[in-house]
Amino acid sequence: MTKIKPNDYVRAAPSQDQPPASTNHPEFKINLSLNESPYPPSPQVVEAFQQSVGTLNRYPNYFSADIRKVLGKKYKLDDTRIMCAAGSEQILAYISRTYIGQGDEVIYPRYGFMVYRFNIAMEGAIPVAIDHDENFVIVVDNILNSVTDKTRLVFLDNPGNPTGTYLPYTEIKRLRKELPQHILLVLDAAYAEFVTEIDYDAGFKLVDEYENVIVTRTLSKLYGLAGLRVGWAYSTPEVINTLMHLKGGYNVSKPAQTAGTAAILDNKYALECRDKCRIGINYLTQELRAMELNVTDSVCNFIMLHFPDRNQMKNCDNFLKDHSIKVGPLGLYNLKKTLRITVGTNDENQIFINVMKKFMKINT
Ligand SMILES: Cc1ncc(COP(=O)(O)O)c(C=O)c1O
User: Fold this and answer.
1) How far is the CA of 351 from the centre of ligand 1 (A)?
2) pLDDT of amino acid 7
3) Model pTM?
4) What distance in angstroms lies between residue 38's CA and the mean position of ligand 1's atoms?
């Protein structure tokens, strides 16, 4: 028998065999490893979700019409230029599938969302990583200086994962202005809802001003719906209509659409969660710095914690695991001395800090 062979690009792509931390380690009491919201969805969302159960024999709305309508209203966007999918990861994959191929170059931040690199490799394109500055902030000139005539696309997570840092809107505007116009700029704003800094903007205005900009967003983070899988994107009619060709079937389930719509409408709850997360991030940052540990300033719901060396990072990770706490080592990003810590509830944050104090006592 001759076995069917997979496409070479697929074999060349980095393996994603390892399940993410939360599914891999159900035994941990506190999971601070995946940038999820520590808070459950709002009661209104739970009620909407439960109501959808009675009609599960019916397919969902093919175009996620209700979510798009409420998003359009909330952000003052033309909802015909919004598309939804099963998580923004799915939209990022559609973008790669649609616009890049073998030999094309794609620029992305070296410490940017891991999935870009997987998707670029999957299409047989060439990933071009750009360096951050010493504070893990993206350097626009490094992007501009990496452009060649093979560059088709730039992925930019703003704010960034795992860095937690952001670029002010003036820099994003400059990037779009100075990038060759035919290059598609993907602004991945998965954590935008957490940012309160006044010089930040997710970039919808740029979509209206330029041909080649797409902004991606998600309900997985602040809205606490990571388990339901709802992401969305805003771009020109051409880009959105093209990506819709890849959508395939009914990819956003009925409970996801119903609960997602309710989540966007419950702005008060979302803002409460945002403020609690910010208080938690400030608390973690201050407490860890008081232990003389190095923490990168973050505008997101997670922080990067840097150790003097790899051994100490590993010892700390193991010590936390022994206390039933899972955090995110960043070896896959080649940040071998760093742990990424997602904010927890107040109680979880306090337990984490107490365990860290114990660790520091033993190890310094
Ligand atoms: C920067 C960034 N973009 C996109 C995503 C994907 O989110 P989702 O597929 O849950 O919408 C994540 C998830 O961690 C992320 O960190």
Assistant:
1) 27
2) 74
3) 0.95
4) 16
